[in-house]
Amino acid sequence: MKIDAAKFVTSAVDYSQVPDTDLPEVAFIGRSNVGKSSLINKVCNKRNLAQASSAPGKTRSLNFFLINDERYFVDLPGYGYAIAPEHMKSSWAKLVETYLQERKQLKLVIQILDARHEPMELDKIMIGWLEFYKIPYVIVMTKADKLSQNKMNTHMARAKAQLPNLKYCQCFLPFSSVSGQGRQELIKVVEDFTQPKD
Ligand SMILES: Nc1nc2c(ncn2[C@@H]2O[C@H](COP(=O)(O)OP(=O)(O)OP(=O)(O)O)[C@@H](O)[C@H]2O)c(=O)[nH]1
Ligand SMILES: [Mg+2]
Q1: Cβ < 6 Å from ligand 1: which residues?
Q2: Ligand 2 centroid to 186 CA: how many Å?
Q3: 173, exposed or middle or buried, with CB in 10 Å at 0-12, 13-18, 19+?
Q4: Residues, Cβ < 5 Å to ion ligand 2
Q5: 4-27 pLDDT per residue, tens
Q6: Where residue 12 sits, what CATH number does that domain have?
């Protein structure tokens, strides 16, 4: 798949606001500041499509992007933003869990981890939700440019060992929004899981 067109369509702060479409959808999720928006920008080759920021907690809504007029990418709000007040944390959980539970056209989740760190408690909880709702997902280890190849291999093996229940996990992919490493591989899995209906 060559991504020729990618455009922002809408934001939803409540599940009632998600767009009414039946195009296949891929959602991107991970801790706040892990690099979700940067990854979407890199995959689409558009610098400012999804906002990227060094201030954590920037993406607070579900942001829908239409890709080649045939599938949606959804940038989910990051979890674990320490300074968020309690009521925001629970509205986050409600929005994301409702989305995962209800969204029939959701075909694949890109679960993003920081390649430098071990999976954290919230990452494990998130992966637990994906397993519970039986949603196929890919674990992408981003910021690969900050690690040597050797370290990346060790960290990937460590993450696999610490995430024992990976029934719906399709693969682990190293990725870098700086170098573009992993971009083609990621596009390939996305394509495989979102073939438009004839
Ligand atoms: N070196 C390096 N830095 C990255 C990479 N991906 C993201 N960053 C940096 O990490 C910071 C956070 O990136 P974002 O893409 O805004 O992260 P996010 O997950 O969308 O963050 P929230 O929307 O706040 O949850 C920014 O300063 C990015 O420039 C990467 O692959 N390599
Ligand atoms: Mg973001």
Answers
A1: 30, 32-38, 52-54, 56-59, 78, 142-143, 145-146, 176-178
A2: 18
A3: buried
A4: 36-37, 59
A5: 889 999 999 899 999 999 999 999
A6: 3.40.50.300
Q: Is there a domain that residue 181 lies in? A: yes
User: Could you tell me the distance, in angstroms and rounded to a whole number, from the CA of residue 35 to the centre of ligand 1?
Assistant: 3
Does the residue 1 lie in any domain? no
Please tell me whether the overall predicted TM-score, pTM, comes out greater than 0.90 for this model. Answer: yes
**164 assigned to some structural domain:** yes
Give a yes or no: residue 198 inside a domain: no
Spatial CB neighbours of 23, under 8 Å, sequence gap ≥ 6: 66, 70, 71, 72, 105, 196
Residue 123: give the domain boundaries.
6-193
Mutational test site, ligand 1, from 38, 53, 63, 92, max ligand atoms within 8 Å of CB: 38
- Nearest-angstrom CA–CA distance, 131 and 128: 5
The total domain count for the chain is 1
